Amino acid sequence: MIETPITAPTDAVVPRGVRMRRALRANPLLTVGGVLVVLIVLVAIFAPLLAPAPADAGTATHPLDVLRGPSAAHWFGTDQVGRDILSRVIYGTRVSPVIAIIVLAIACAIGIPLGVAAGFMGGWLDELIMRVTDVFLAFPPLLLALALAAVLPASLTSLTIAIAAVWWPWYVRLLRGQAASVAGRPYIETCRALGISRTRIIFRHILPNSITPLLVQVSLDVGGVILTASALSFLGLGAQDPTPDWGLMIAEGQSYFTPDWWLVTFPGLAILLTAFAFNLLGDGLRDLLDPKRSFLP
Amino acid sequence: MTGENLQPAGRAASESSGRLAIANLEVSFGERKVVSIADLRLDHAEIVGLAGESGSGKSMTTLAILGLAHTVGAAVGGSIKLDGLELVGLGADQLRAIRGRRIAAIFQSPSTAFSPVYKVGSVFVKALRLHGASKSEAEDRAAEAMRQVLLSPDLMRRYPSQLSGGQLQRVAIALAVALRAEILLADEPTSALDVTVQAEVLDLLRGLRESIGMSILFISHDLAVVAELCDSVAVMRNGLIVEQGLAGQVLSAPEDAYTIELLASVPRLAAAP
Amino acid sequence: MTAESEVPVASARAHEPEIAATGEVSSTPPLLRIADLTVRFGPVLAVSGVSLDVPAGPFGLGLVGESGSGKSTIGRAILRLVRAASGTITFDSKDVGSLHAAALKAYRRDAQIVFQDPDNSLDPRMRIGTTIGEALRTHDIVPRDGIADRIAELLTEAGLEPAFAERYPHQLSGGQRQRVAIARALSVQPRLLVLDEPTSALDVRTQARILKLIARLRAERQLSYLLITHNLGVVSKLCEQTAVLYLGKIAEIGPTDLLLSAPAHPYTQALRSAVPEVDVAGRRSRIVLPGDPPNSASPPAGCVFHPRCPLAIDRCRTEIPELRDVAPGRRSSCHRAEEVLAGKLAAT
To answer: Is B117 helix (H, G, I), strand (E, B) or coil?
Structure first.
């Protein structure tokens, strides 16, 4: 019997390191986003060295310097009690983004296992998890966070818990949909036919194939969480003065907006930049992790 | 051409060779040429088969004939003449008048031709009215066409999800009949259907050729279906026609190595009783 | 690549009529025995009282049918991917339905399946080598350090260069992916392989190559396989015996060549005549079945085929025909089977 001709591979093997470097070059989003995020992290770490007036991020006040516009001495101007806004914005990198990351980490920690369990196992477990999730989703998010934050003593910790409690149901829903979709694919059925354990199927097959939309969602949510936190801080339920929370700064600076625009603008730009950086990072990560896209044709 | 009274099919093919005459057709994506057909003709009441594997360019040819190649980013050069009328380079309005009305098309997945939120009958009425018929005339012709494809006109009141694949495909053919299309482009219309349902659809197409003189360009990867249905066949590979001629001839005594290989690959049944 | 003469599978069995029949050989029990299998999906009866035997290899049993016939469901039931409502599936004299834990896992080494869709049968995020390696690791087929070599062997056996192990599925063609699926299924060294429409989604030339591969593997590994397909040409090449299914029931079962040349059931006749053939000279009168394949949720009374059967009589409307012997080694579930077999009822 004549042997079937051996078919040649369709393109050359690329070692992992080269693949990564190529992916970075081919993914400007990832690169820019990554650089920005790293910058923000560095600013947070080196805040005491970068800020011209570190004390202003704390309890210092300068009654003689209130509401001065941007100048050489104060690049971002001063606020209603004379604090250097630049310093406060710099120190803000230690507040808002950190809250956002912790909140999202908690939401993922709850949302991923529940979502994957519901999507993959189906049946009564799915019903149970989804009905509980639906109950949480039925509340308007901000109101629920408000209610929770009001019950807890006003602090950053309470803020974090309140927002995380509101955020996790969305991730359950997202993961459940993805996991259910992946679970129905032939390669999962084949895994079962091969006798591969359910644990392994979940961790090696379901999770990696369901996680990408979540990554993108998480990156988009960074900005969302910061805004939610600022809303709560504005209502006095989270960060308290003098914490240099960007949202709080905007809330406090609101009434001075005309004509003293700098109190609101610079913290606002900081939020914008941070959210933007994480969005780019998320988009870039998604492209990188999709094996079909990260290979150059 | 819109607003013109619909003319019956079966009018004599004009002086130029064949109802549909393709000459030096080239379809390309930038530098890459995906179709390069020197000569392909479809006569009145003729069924021509375009056979080939995936990537052979047969589907792109269909798109080019319908004037839809640009929607996927391809450029078309050469000549496609419908009864002497040059289609390549024709304006969008004129093409729209021809598409569906004079050249109809059915595809592999009949459900994609029907929007799931509308009853299938409404597609008929809309299409016929678009080409100039009145509402009652449209309804009459739709019912008549359904009967011609051996379906009860009552089925027009159903939604696509309530009809089987075979039924939907026949409705798609009925649409072409109702519009009195002269040419039907059938791109793998039976590939997704059961064998027995496929036999019915093929029978139907043959019947239409007999009764109303419809010309059919039948695109398929299945050589057996092409052998059964088509009068002549063109075998495509990598955008080129490697062999063409009468079906009986090409499929029993192929000359091109690729055609020979294709034929050898078709699993044969044991001798028939 | 030119046409090759394959080992004619069907004729190899011609000398063993007993085994070629229903597999009910008195000497050795069959490798796989399905007895009165019924599978339900909600209100739909996908498989209804099906009994089949597959002897030890090399052997090929074809399951032919159209949509709604239940052929794929039978394949999945054998692999314990769907639950049987009633009936038993016995492999090597062990009841498959009652296997648990370790025994079930061991069964996974004996019987494997290859699915139809080459695009989704491999995890897109895993390299080919990892995918095959996973199967090997799950069952400790070879020691750790031997896995890479075994993967290379398996790929070569399936007609692929070992370098494919580094690739991702999207870098392979449909035919190549199907070969990987076959290699993976064979990695656990099964004795029974279920092939669910293995070539339906492939190009004609690729189909031929995959079929050739299956024939070769059958000979080399003494495989028994259940070939599920709607393509009669495929079973005539690869299966000694074929069962024709309609709406969850067996219409007819017997040696493939006889079944195709002298059907004993009107549905087989219609199916056979509906299949288009390249040899245009062999065109015979076509039996066109009226109507569409029936709704599985509300099957017809009496014989499930009677609404579309050109030979239906009154009895067919009320009485469900039994699957019975109509000739040595051949069974049919038609009241008029003998007449059909004798060719007295020609297609109208």
So the answer is: coil
Cβ atoms of B27 and B61 within 8 Å: the answer is yes
> Which chain C residues are closer than 8 Å to B53 by Cβ?
203-205
Contact B270 C271 (CB under 8 A): no
Q: What is the pLDDT of residues B195-243, one digit of tens each?
A: 888 888 998 999 888 888 899 999 998 898 999 899 999 999 999 999 9
The answer to whether the CB atoms of B270 and C208 lie below 8 A apart is: no
Q: With cut-offs at 50, 70 and 90, classify the pLDDT of residue C7.
A: very low
CA pair distance A27, A284, nearest whole angstrom: 6
Contacting residues of C for A196, CB less than 8 Å apart: 134-135, 138
If we measure between CA atoms, which residue out of C5, C16, C4 comes closest to residue C240?
A: C16
Distance, CA of C115 to chain centre? 11
3-state helix, strand, coil in chain A (%, to 5): 70, 0, 25
The structural domains of chain C, ordered by start, are: 12-250 (3.40.50.300)
Apex CA B267: angle with CA B265 and CA B271, to 5°? 135
Q: Which of B13-22, C239-248, C287-296 has the highest mean pLDDT?
A: C239-248
Subunits that touch chain A (at least 3 Cβ pairs < 8 angstroms)?
A: C
CB-based contact (8 Å) between C104 and chain A?
yes
CATH of A91-289, one of 2.60.40.10, 1.10.3720.10, 1.20.1420.20, 1.20.1640.10: 1.10.3720.10
Q: Which residues of B239-272 are buried (b: 16+ CB within 10 A; e: fewer)?
A: bbbbbbeebeebbeebeeebbebbbbbbbbbbee
What is the 8-class DSSP label of residue A205? Answer: I
A and B touch with 3+ CB pairs <8 Å, answer no
Determine the pLDDT at residue B55: 82
Q: Indicate the pLDDT class of residue C279, thresholds 50, 70 and 90.
A: confident
Alpha-carbon distance of C116 to B105, in angstroms, equals 28
Nearest to A9 among C121, C139, C167 (CB): C167
Tokens 């059931």, residue?
A: C265
Is the Cβ pair B197, C292 closer than 8 Å? Answer: yes
pLDDT value for A279: 82
Distance set, CA A79 to CA A66, A114, A271, C55 (Å) = 6, 45, 18, 88
Query: Token digits for C266?
Result: 């009107």
Distances (CA, A) of A262 to A57, B80, C228: 16, 66, 73
Q: Which of A69, A81, A71 is closest to A260 using CA atoms? A: A69
Complex ipTM: 0.81
> Which residues of C are less than 8 Å from A204 in CB distance?
126, 134
Q: Which of residues 51-80 of C touch B (CB under 8 A)?
A: 66-67
Sheet holding B240-246, edge to edge: B85-86, B75-82, B20-29, B32-42, B240-246, B232-237, B47-51, B215-220, B183-187, B103-106
Give the start-to-end residue ranges of the domains of chain A.
91-289
Sequence-distant (≥ 6) Cβ neighbours of residue A221 within 8 angstroms:
A100, A104, A167
Domain ranges (residues) in chain B: 20-113+183-264
The full DSSP string for B1-37 is -TTSPPPPS-PPP-SSSSSEEEEEEEEEETTEEEEEE
Q: Which residues are within 8 A (CB) of C203 and not within 5 positions of it... i.e. 6 or more apart?
A: B53, B54, B221, C174, C175
Q: How far apart are CA B66 and CA B60, in angstroms?
A: 10
- Interface contact C163-A186, CB threshold 8 A: no
Alpha carbon C244 to its chain centroid, in Å, reads 10
CATH code of the region B20-113+183-264: 3.40.50.300
Q: Measured between alpha carbons, how far is residue B68 from residues B93, B200, C15, C138 in Å? A: 13, 29, 59, 51
* Whole-prediction pTM: 0.81
Given the DSSP bridges, would you call strands C330-332 and C249-255 parallel, antiparallel or unpaired? antiparallel
Q: Which two tokens stand for residue C253?
A: 């079962």
Predicted local distance difference test score (pLDDT) of residue B246? 92
**Residues of chain C found within 8 Å of residue A8, distances taken between Cβ atoms:** 161
